[in-house]
Amino acid sequence: MPGSLAAGPPVLPAVAVLGGGAAGFFGAIACAEANPAQPVVLLEKSPKLLSKVRISGGGRCNVTHACESATQLVQHYPRGGRQLKEAFRQFGVADTVAWFARRGVALKTEADGRMFPTTDSSETIARALEEAARRAGVRVLTRTAAEQITALPAGGFRLALSGEGSTALGPELRVSQLLVATGGNPKSAAYDWLRALGHTIAEPVPSLFTFNVPTSPLRELPGVSVPHARVVLAGEKLQYEGPLLVTHWGVSGPAVLKLSAWGARRLHELSYHGTALVSWVPTHTDETLRPWAQSFRLENGKKQVAAHPQFGLPTRLWRTLVTDAGIGPDTRWNEVPAKAQNRLLELLLRTPLQVQGKTTHKDEFVTCGGIPLSEVNLATFESRRVPGLYFAGEVLDIDGITGGFNFQAAWTTGFLAGQALAKAEQPAALSPG
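Above: the chain's sequence. Below: its structure in token form.
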């Protein structure tokens, strides 16, 4: 039934969860399992549940990342990692793996550390979460929005509902505890309702995006990938190494995505314009590459430069760099002018790409910004400003680099918030409207 995963007559929940994504589901399940006597309702304003889970990892769902300790894990969060260290000790990667294993979902680790379900299908994860919610007795309502939220003087909250939930639960719902897991949003105004409840907001800006390079010298090479490159933002202290992918619109891949995450605020200030310098040979420097060239030229002088790619670079990429250096297709190494050879070495170390904008990565919207962690109890994720109000997931000012880290933050904050909700003292009995 699209509107509800838990059948039965309407009940007045003690806990409401706003947001049908990873953090919202995890929090609702954790609360309901820890305290079965406490009714929990989850409200999602859209018709779809777990939409980001379903599109993550190209439809495979990158559930988490193989990190052995909280110390290792926190290094992958441009914002929030240091503050989450103790939370990750309470519920970390091993706990996530065990949680899904208990529900019949096995995870596998790929060479780069990313972890996926062995089925390679995000539906496996979505179904496990939906089934866990159903078994725990969580009532899930889609097409239901909380249009207005009021903190009540005696404790608890009044929610003015619209959509299907207003039919199922009434136009107004009173709950004793509220978990906000509505995700990130690039528009500051989207957080006004949280400002109205008494919180400040770290201004949201996009994170995890690809670079648009409309005048790219690589524009004829879409689909070409390099397993290890370094991307540096010229004039800034921003750089990252990793796989790089050439696209129709510019460059992508983990090296670019991770750089965009660490540099999210600075890139926003620059209006996503600047020069990205790509090193195709990140293990080399000027001091090591020039001697290599001299030695290689002496030993392979009769070889055509364009016909013999070096450093394991794809043939198409190598030929493009050779051509851009002014070296003809039939030119042999011992015929290359010094100026052209220097130009080729410069391109290998620092190919300049004029970045003019960004593109969202695979429809996966990630933002930095949201509720400052200083305004939240990091043991329970309860608001320090509004008793009974909890947060989980990307609505908090937490974001990780690509590789399963944002989902791990969702599982961790959702679980700890849900556990705390289950133990929270309830105000006096509440009634609708």
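Residues 405-423 form the longest helix (19 residues).
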